């Protein structure tokens, strides 16, 4: 049996590389298979199995194989990588190309610009991998005004704009006409946008914006959208319409952004009120965690009534539209959570609140 060391010398491949192929960590290219076959002293057909190479093929596949055989080694390797990535990029669970950040810029000299940052190289595509890839990606951006009239744009790669490290992941969108402050505009990005690693965006993206802020992003992606969009209530342990709520309940609220940071803490303490359906005000404690906490608790606020609530009574918790996130975005409109307490006056053991005499 031929040792790995001997096979390495005969094939010209490193031992570590051969180990990675044997373990399945590395997929060999066609040229690598040729070298392995040469080192083993057998034909490529014997290495792969003659039956694999002799399976009947359709005329189209036979023509493709014939064209592949005419390619130089480096192009065969590139094609091999492309086909492997193409098949995996559509597989369930594989990570496609994604939009990672959007930056709006306004300056007296350059006017309005939008930087769109992707997860991989989209603006400096290697020609031998995807011919004319960068230009084809540029054709995937379109800008419209509120009446869906297309606005001419200049698209600049991050590398040409000298945007520094990872500039190849960035496209800069620059309208050729002046945009009007306060009006809505829509940028669309084609799902056919392709990265240098052959991954596609897979979904059409739409960014609704003004010259000052991003209003909406479709499809919604929590990680991408949270820094830009209005503050939102994401979760509550009590929802509108809930009944039989313990009279000593506390309401735990989770928002889409940091709501306890020092910059907004004082404002947010005054953004909650609780009253009964008879308009009786309930005194509450608004409980926030440590503003320096880096966990998701910085998105949480607990509302704790200072006394037990009345049994079988409807209550309304109102969250003010002025509640503010650490990204300076507001809730935007009042939010109400309406619930009814337990008709027997049942309480939950170990929870806060003092009984009403």
Automatic annotation (TrEMBL):
Any one Pfam family match given in the protein's UniProt record, by short name: Big_5
- Extract the GO molecular function terms from the UniProt entry: DNA binding
Q: What is the annotated signal peptide range for this record?
A: none
Q: Which Gene3D superfamilies match?
A: lambda repressor-like DNA-binding domains
State if Phosphoprotein is listed as a keyword. no
Q: Which UniProt keywords apply?
A: DNA-binding, Signal
Q: Which residues form the HTH cro/C1-type domain?
A: 7-47
Q: What is this protein called?
A: DNA-binding helix-turn-helix protein
């Amino acid at each position: 049996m031929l040792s790995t060391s001997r096979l390495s010398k005969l094939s010209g491949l490193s031992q570590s590389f051969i180990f990675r192929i044997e373990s399945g960590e590395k997929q060999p290219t066609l040229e690598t298979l040729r070298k392995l076959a040469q080192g083993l002293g057998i034909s490529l057909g014997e290495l792969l199995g003659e039956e694999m190479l002799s399976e009947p093929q359709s005329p189209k596949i036979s023509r493709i194989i014939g064209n592949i055989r005419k390619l130089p080694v480096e192009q065969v390797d590139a094609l091999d990588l492309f086909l492997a990535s193409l098949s995996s990029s559509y597989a369930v669970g594989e990570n496609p190309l994604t939009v990672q950040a959007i930056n709006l810029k306004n300056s007296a000299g350059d006017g309005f610009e939008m930087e769109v940052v992707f997860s991989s190289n989209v603006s400096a595509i290697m020609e031998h991998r995807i011919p004319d890839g960068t230009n084809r990606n540029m054709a995937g951006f379109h800008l419209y005004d509120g009446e869906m009239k297309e606005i001419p744009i200049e698209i600049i790669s991050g590398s040409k704009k000298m945007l520094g490290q990872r500039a190849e992941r960035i496209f800069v969108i620059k309208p050729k006409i002046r945009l009007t402050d306060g009006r809505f505009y829509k940028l669309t990005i084609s799902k056919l946008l392709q990265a240098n690693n052959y991954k596609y965006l897979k979904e059409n993206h739409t960014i609704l914006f003004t010259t000052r802020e991003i209003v909406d992003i479709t499809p919604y992606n929590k990680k991408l959208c949270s820094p830009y969009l209005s503050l939102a209530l994401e979760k509550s342990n009590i929802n509108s319409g809930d009944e039989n709520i313990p009279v000593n309940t506390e309401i735990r609220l989770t928002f889409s952004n940091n709501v306890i940071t020092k910059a907004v803490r004082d404002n947010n303490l005054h953004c909650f009120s609780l009253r009964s359906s008879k308009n009786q005000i309930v005194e509450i404690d608004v409980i926030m965690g440590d503003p320096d906490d880096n966990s998701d608790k910085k998105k949480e606020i607990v509302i704790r009534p200072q006394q037990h609530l009345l049994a079988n009574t409807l209550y309304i918790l109102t969250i003010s539209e002025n509640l503010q996130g650490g990204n300076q975005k507001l809730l935007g409109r009042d939010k109400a959570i309406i619930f009814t307490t337990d008709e027997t006056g049942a309480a939950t053991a170990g929870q806060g609140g003092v009984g009403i005499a």
